[in-house]
From TrEMBL:
Residue ranges constituting the V-SNARE coiled-coil homology domain according to the UniProt record: 36-96
Keyword Ligase found: no
Protein name as annotated: Synaptobrevin domain-containing protein
UniProt cross-references to CDD domains, sorted A to Z: R-SNARE
Amino acid sequence: MYGNVVEAKSTLLPYSLSEFSNILNDRMKYFNTNGDYDKMNNVKGEIDQVKDIMVKRVLERGERIELLVDKTDHLSQSALTFQRRAKKVKRSFWWSNMRLAVILVFLLILLAYIGTSYFCGFDFDKCMNK
């Protein structure tokens, strides 16, 4: 139909490509109205949409990871603060238990003294003479 390119160059006259103009016009109509070409464009468009969605998801994931890192740092700091306060409370209870133990020991000694004083007298004369 088109022949050899070398031969065509030597025989071309101005405006002698009207046959090609008709073919070009037919191809333009075909691609403008053909559903297959539109399907290809639709597929390309869907691929672009999927790319956009994936990029958005990756960015959202990055933001969520940053948020998670911030929360982890805050939790770590809170845990250290909790640990320090727990040690202070533990020491406070230990000292209060020690005070209670000392008071109880003092009361037991006092009760023992009062008990022996009741039976032996306050100067222990009754128990020393026996």
